[in-house]
Amino acid sequence: MNVLYFQHVDDASPGVACTLLMFYLMFTSLWLIPTLYFVWQVVDWHTPERGGRKTTFVRNWRVWEHLRDFFPIKMVKTAELNPNKNYVVGIHPHGIMGFGAFTCFSTESCGFKELFPGLTSNLLVLVGLFRLPLFREYVMFTGLLPVSKKSLTHLLTNKGKGNAVVIVIGGAAESLASAPGVNIVVMRKRKGFVRVALELGADLVPAYAFGENELFKQVVFSEGSLGRRLQDLFKKIMGFAPCVFVGEHMGILPYRIPITTVVGSPISVPKHIKATEEEVDHFHKLYMEALSKLFHEHKVSCGLSENHELRII
Fold first, then answer.
1. Measuring CA to CA, which residue among 236, 53, 46, 239 is closest to residue 150?
2. Using one digit for the tens of pLDDT, what is the confidence trace for 228-267?
3. Strand (E) positions, the chain?
């Protein structure tokens, strides 16, 4: 159970536990350990936005293969990605815990390197996770990096070519809409990733994780309700939203539903350092159209029926 729980791409709970542990140790005979670590953390503060400390050893842990096989999770390639280019990959939907995104792009268990030789993937998540002591080291070892402009600029300029930066576009807002049978992505007003792609000359690639929304049954509060207002308030303060959900086996484990992450064709994007709003809107529209096409072309083969529709809000 713990193995699965730790994989939520935006889950700060383990990090909170690490923080509480470190502060507890401050008031024990082991106070020197957390003191030295906090000093180290201050010195190392900007490392996450400078590429982090991804290690092949952690990304190849056998436990990720067990995680992959539990559902199971697989990745489907629909087009070649040129290793002499850089890419901004949008992964949808967020789901409750983002198992598909993490397993496919932050571990080697789904064969990313074999499917896309010459490319390196980095999944970008909440900046706040890298402020949590100890936990920040773990997430960096897996290749997770903060979703910030500095981080994107470093990966898409200082790392040369062959980089695939993966962003969960819908974020916490999308997680609140996650439920079995629901295919909602939040992105109509989210254009920052397109602007960055234009500024840095990176092609856009849509990806959809079929099955992600089926893993838990969530209590979806209606707009304006007290529950939804509390969720929105928490999201505004903390950056992620607390979801009320249940799974299998005492409501803890996710349902064993296959997750198929389909990676679409690249959308060629020119490099315009000072892109106009019209250019941003143009490529944002192309991206939404490509995502919708990807969804409808693969929904039946990935377990959905013909009458399932993709709703972009």
1. 46
2. 788 778 777 766 667 778 888 767 789 999 999 999 999 9
3. 73-77, 87-92, 120-125, 145-146, 163-168, 184-185, 203-210, 217-218, 245-246, 259-263, 311-312
pTM of the model: 0.90
Distance CA 259, CA 212 (A): 6
Measured CA to CA, the distance from residue 59 to residue 108 in angstroms comes to 6
Please report, in angstroms and rounded to a whole number, the separation of the first and last CA atoms in the chain: 33
Secondary structure letter of residue 22 according to DSSP: H
DSSP letters for 251-290: HHBPP---EEEEE---B-----TT--HHHHHHHHHHHHHH
Strands 163-168 and 259-263: unpaired
What DSSP state is assigned to residue 130? G
SS3 80: coil
Q: Please answer whether residues 100 and 123 qualify as being in contact, where contact means their C-beta atoms are separated by less than 8 angstroms.
A: no
